[in-house]
Known about the structure:
By secondary structure, the protein is α/β, with parallel strands linked by helices. Helices cover about 55% and strands about 10% of the residues. The strands form three sheets. Strands 3-2-1-4-5-6-7-10 form an eight-stranded mixed sheet, with helices on both faces. Strands 8-9 form a two-stranded antiparallel ribbon.
Amino acid sequence: MKADIGLIGLAVxxxxxxxxxxxxGFTVAVFNRDTKKVDAFVEGRGKGKNIIGTRSLEELVAxxxxxxxxxxxxxxxxxxxxxxxxxxxxxxPGDIVIDGGxxxxxxxxxxxxxxxESGMLYVGTGVSGGEEGALLGPAIMPGGSDGAWAPLEPIxxxxxxxxxxxxxxxCAWIGPGGAGHFVKMVHNGxxxxxxxxxxxxxxxxxxxxxxxxxxxxSVFDEWNRGPLCSYLIEITRDIFTAKDGDGYVVDTILDTxxxxxxxxxxxxxxxxxxxxxxxxxxxxxxxxxxxxxxxxTAASTVLGAGTLExxxxxxxxxxxxxxxxxxxxxxxxxxxxxxxxxxxxEKGWNLDMGAIAMIWRGGCIIRSVFLGRxxxxxxxxPALSNLLLDPFFKDAxxxxxxxxxxxxxxxxxxxxxxxxxxSALAYYDGYRQARLPANLLQAQRDYFGAHQYERTDxxxxxxxxxxxxxxxxxxxxTMYNV
Length: 482
């Protein structure tokens, strides 16, 4: 019996993907560097199932039907390159290597070029949904070599989550090169933003309104029945009910957050492209600030809050927080989609924004009712330049704008750190203004560095320099933007 696909890496995600594939009727060959894991898996969860345990890469490749499909679920970075080095001599033209980890998209593009030079195909695919998603149906975002999708589509669409009335698979071909891993990276960046926004609302409830876990649970339970309905709101609700011998688990967890790099990559990509990804970047920095726990603890004993008096109407504050969270979430997606549009244009990926929203509707960490609205927005206008300009989202923000402002003012007045929610509002206010104070900024640049400026009464693309001090000459700096 030959296997339909091979999978390397039997950690949590790898094991559960194998179980998912087998449950959909596929035979899977597995390999792990520590072969004891192979034996334990085949004799444990995989016993009696169409799973072939192998104890070398040679044995794995020999167990596969042509074209051989080999999926890597291993740590991103150099381990992926080392595995590719070991696989290439064993594969033949037309075989497909799939990287299902969180690899950086430039690495995926480089690896695709290398495999294609040898006549093989390479796919970098985002897989989102965690342990449960991998087992029951994740969101899958594959991209890479032309010709790789047809042999993979039956497997990936079968194991993916399903969403909507039509039970659509949460999986579609994203595009060439590193497009799949790029879209997964942006997904994770939006995930960073969503989580930070929820934490800021929680901080107001806990630190200002004096609410305990039971009461906070009730609020998130209510929020999960409305427009904020989502996986992250759902699990946040459930977190506030968990207890151990020391009480509520959430209250015993140290306030230092980890990160594995995808949020940082998203911010770096935005900086490279000049896209204002302010909310997601603030979410990344908030995790960095949380990491300096000892410094913050020391600072808390010497730095005052200087809070302003704020009237507290708990019901009103909670309603405002709900609306502020919803509006800020819209900003996060608007920024993330702007970043995807910029890279799509630069690299010629031709990303289908509506299809990406469809993929994210189920299985993934950021799945929510909200994503259906994004899918509809891009179906109405596939060339939509910013989500805020879609009629639904324009009206949704407009109706809640006062509440959003009140929530941010309340948080700032009472000394709560709200970097994501406040930066989201600042982005909205900046985006809606026809005239920003950047004219002064450009005057400053021209004053000290002769960097030139454009004029309001002249066509775009004409540049001028003014001799501000009377001591400078007419020579100006070369005009360029990074």
